[in-house]
Write a structure and sequence with these properties.
heterotrimer; A alpha/beta; B alpha/beta; C mainly alpha; B: alpha/beta; 9-stranded mixed beta sheet; C: mainly alpha; two-stranded parallel sheet; 46% helix
Chain lengths: 249, 202, 384
């Protein structure tokens, strides 16, 4: 049986790891290598490493740093930030990445998603879905270019272009540690057949109980809870196990 | 033991090297014919589409030498993920394409009503008795949307349940392959690789 | 790399958990400014005395009134002195044995009981602790990690065990060294949440040490924070003295010196220019150096910034000291660590290099770090 994946997400500013609240107020939390070593020792199911300022600052992700991070990992790693070309993807795969995470290229060069999916296989292409709740309760995709696109339209389009996975992050819940946006997760699960990683808002074990009771999601990502509380991925596994969800030993 | 990891510009070669380095197994990443000829064991890793993989092998002139070393000289071969799929006769990703043809069958898109595709994550393999991974009925990391429909059931070493039953590993003479990624499956994956090398050495 | 520095002190933007306001002033300076002008210290003192009155036992009842966690350093010596002689409490001091104590550190620790105060010195299982020292050095680049945990958990465990609810901590490090936001700086309580978020654990948790070289969960007993149930039953309350009284380390140093506290007479501690702080632990300079290779600033920066904020140094004078003392390869600390751990120098250096930030320090063509004849790294940045 496929196991629920518990995925720490490392967000990077080009120099060190940071953690945001609602996609702003970056707080520097430490050195990427030390954090990767902790997660490798914990045997987490996967790791996602994102340079969240690369695109905005018009630079490429620092391959030396990524290499050092991946060196610590005997588990799958997804890397994102500033990826624009097949060469960029190949550079990352060659140093041991398994997947790449794309987003802003959808707004500037959507055919690139299609092209990279055809070249590297759809399983290699993960799309970040940064959903911002609107006053009327609907969701739109936060993006640098400022394009107006609804959540559902976005996920349908990226699936069509050849995405293999979606990381669904609630902009409003990011870093707040007050729980997941289960409405958002439900909407995405209903509207796509791709695997999704649910992100944004985890602060306690109850939040995981709530998410997994309310939805049938199969992967969950978190950051703040691992930086700032006593909980580790093992605690989450134990919590999910009690709910009858399959987790890896 | 002299292990070559075939470099054909299709992804995760560094991870395979890292795993072998960790196990203390001498290895080299290459697409040099001379080095491949001298190898004791050949590993074909890979992430990407079937067609792109075959095109790259062909462009680098590697198809003949692989046939010669694996089929004629019967050197132990390990294919991982795309490296397992490429030994099929035929692939369909993203369009129809001929494979290396060492193991009968074809690689086709997974079709599941109630499951999300790609098949992505940790899943338990069901191992056949007397296969090279007999003692590894455990969770390994999978990431694929296409699967190898192996024609000869004798060649299947392990399967995985994801709605339907899919081929997770192959063993046919000197040819070994896994759909999952042992090099990404932490301690168990490293143990499996170690076991593989112990197996082919004896 | 161009590093932005605080316009008032010398903290760099690369320092974890620091933030800058629009004028480029760091959160530690903002907190210091607040200490100088924005706080009604008289009122805080009244608040403090009200709190402790609640915990003070009547004169005819035996027992301790509060716990003071001590290391034998100047700050904790002052806390003990203050609670006993200024506040008239009957404190129980609790010391978690450090990794590799210096002679001077031992003398200063012994001095606390000579000041007329009871001390529990917790001697930990050396084998288990050493395994954690080595593992945390390799895993997170901080060989003092098990110490960071023990100094917090042991006093709380003893508070629970002996039913002494009040724990008097010193300065809130978030106030002294800056925090991610104003709430963290204004924090007056030290509880589990504070420890996990601000205790310097670098995201590594005690349960991550189970299984390391055979360490069992039971062997980690002293390092687990007591259960919420125990904490609530006893009503454990940890407060920062620095929240209630203006914290001036140098002034306090002069006071404790009169009560038997000794400073290092033969020159400054390795890695900085002062002779009164971090003098109890032989490995501390390695710990400080690891911070330097990760973030580009060391202990001399910490000290200079405090002296600048307390107007004992100008920024310019501080900068000169930092340029002179920060980031020097800690030969003494490394040697002490080699003797303690049994790891060879070459391996120690490989591990240090694995945490060295390639953005901050110049690399050779082969990816190794460029070093001068003294083993010092070459910065890519200017301290400005």
């Amino acid at each position: 049986m496929l196991k629920v994946r518990i995925i720490p997400i490392l967000t990077f500013n080009g120099f060190a790891l940071i953690k945001t609240k609602q996609f702003s107020q970056p707080r520097m939390v430490g050195n990427p290598v030390q954090t990767a070593r902790i997660y490798n020792s914990r045997g987490v199911d996967e790791l996602i490493f994102l340079d969240i300022f690369a695109t905005a600052q018009k630079r490429k992700i620092n391959l030396n740093v990524v290499k050092e991070v991946i060196k610590e990992c005997f588990m799958p790693v997804g890397i994102g930030g500033g990826i624009k070309s097949l060469d960029d993807i190949n550079d990352l795969l060659r140093i041991g990445a398994d997947k790449v995470v794309l987003k802003d290229c959808f707004f500037t060069n959507p055919s690139f998603i299609k092209e990279s999916s055809r070249f590297f296989g759809e399983q290699c292409i993960t799309i970040a879905v940064d959903a911002k709740k609107q006053i009327d309760g609907s969701y739109k995709i936060l993006n640098l270019k400022g394009d107006d696109i609804s959540l559902i339209e976005f996920i349908k389009k990226v699936e069509e272009l050849g995405a293999g996975e979606l990381i669904v992050n609630s902009v409003d819940n990011d870093g707040m540690m007050r729980g997941f946006d289960t409405d958002l997760i439900k909407q995405v699960l209903y509207n796509t057949s791709l695997p999704i990683v649910c992100v944004g808002g985890a602060g306690s074990m109850e939040h995981f109980e709530d998410l997994f009771s309310a939805t049938n999601c199969e992967a969950v990502g978190a950051a703040s809870i691992f930086h700032f509380t006593q909980f580790t991925p093992l605690d989450i596994k134990n919590t999910l196990s009690k709910l009858g969800k399959p987790v890896r030993k | 033991m002299n292990v070559v990891i075939i470099d054909y510009n299709m992804g995760n070669i560094a991870s395979v090297k890292k795993a072998l380095d960790f196990l203390g197994i001498e290895n080299i990443i290459t697409n040099n014919r001379g080095l491949i000829e001298k190898a004791d064991v050949i590993i074909l890793p890979g992430v990407g589409s079937f067609k792109q993989g075959m095109d790259n092998l062909s462009k680098l002139g590697l198809i003949d030498i692989l046939n010669e070393q694996v089929i004629v000289n019967k050197k132990p071969f390990l294919g991982i993920c795309l490296g397992m799929q490429l030994i099929a006769e035929f692939g369909t990703e993203p369009i129809d394409c001929i494979g290396l043809g060492w193991v009968k069958g074809s690689v086709i898109k997974m079709q599941e009503q109630d499951k999300r595709i790609p098949h992505l994550g940790w899943n338990t393999i069901k191992v056949k008795v007397n296969s090279f991974i007999e003692n590894f009925q455990e969770d390994f990391y999978f990431i694929h949307s296409y699967h190898f429909k192996v024609a000869n059931l004798e060649s299947i070493a392990a399967t995985v349940d994801y709605g339907d039953e899919y081929v997770a590993a192959i063993q046919q003479g000197n040819i070994y392959a896994t759909q999952f990624h042992p090099e990404k499956s932490q301690a168990l994956g490293l143990g499996l690789l170690k076991n593989f090398f112990a197996n082919v050495k004896s | 790399m161009n590093i932005r520095y605080c316009t008032e002190c010398l903290f760099p933007e690369t320092k974890p958990d620091l933030f800058f306001n629009d004028e480029g002033v760091c959160s530690a300076c903002i907190a210091a400014e607040e200490k100088d002008t924005g706080i009604n210290w008289d009122q805080r003192a009244i608040d403090f005395h009200e709190i402790i009155a609640h915990y003070k036992k009547p004169d005819n009842e035996i027992g301790y009134d509060c716990i003071v966690p001590v290391s034998g350093g100047k700050d904790s010596t002052y806390q003990a002195y203050f609670m006993k002689y200024i506040c008239g409490m009957n404190p129980l001091c609790v010391c978690f044995e450090t990794t590799s104590v210096t002679k001077l550190g031992q003398k200063n620790l012994d001095n606390i009981s000579k000041m007329g105060i009871d001390v529990i010195h917790f001697k930990k299982n050396h084998e288990v602790y050493k395994k954690m020292v080595i593992e945390s050095f390799q895993r997170i680049g901080d060989e003092m990690w098990p110490n960071h945990i023990g100094i917090f958990t042991i006093p709380v465990l003893i508070a629970v065990k002996f039913n002494i609810p009040l724990i008097i901590w010193g300065e809130n490090s978030q106030q002294e060294y800056g925090g991610p936001n104003l709430e963290s700086i204004k924090n007056r309580l030290l509880n589990r949440k504070w420890l996990e978020e601000f205790g310097g654990l670098l995201g590594n948790r005690i349960q991550d040490m189970i299984g390391v070289n055979g360490i069992t969960e039971k062997e980690l007993t002293p390092y687990f924070y007591p259960s919420d149930e125990d904490i609530n039953r006893v009503g454990v309350t940890g407060i920062f003295l620095g929240h209630y009284f203006f914290w001036d380390a140098r002034k306090q140093l002069e006071i404790v010196k009169k009560h038997g506290f000794c400073v290092k007479e033969d020159g400054p501690t390795e890695g900085t220019y002062t002779n009164y702080e971090n003098i109890d632990e032989k490995l501390v300079s390695l710990h400080d150096y690891l911070k330097y290779v990760k973030y580009g600033f060391g202990r001399a920066t910490d000290h200079a910034c405090i002296d600048i904020r307390n107007k004992r140094l100008t920024r310019e004078e501080g900068k000169k000291l930092v340029q002179e003392y920060d980031g020097k390869y800690p030969h003494f600390g490394v040697q002490s660590f080699i003797e303690y751990s049994g790891i060879g120098k070459e391996e120690v250096d490989i591990i240090i290099d694995s945490f060295t930030n390639p953005i901050l320090f110049i690399q050779n063509a082969d990816g190794s770090f460029k070093k001068d004849s003294q083993g010092n790294l070459v910065r890519t940045f200017e301290i400005v």
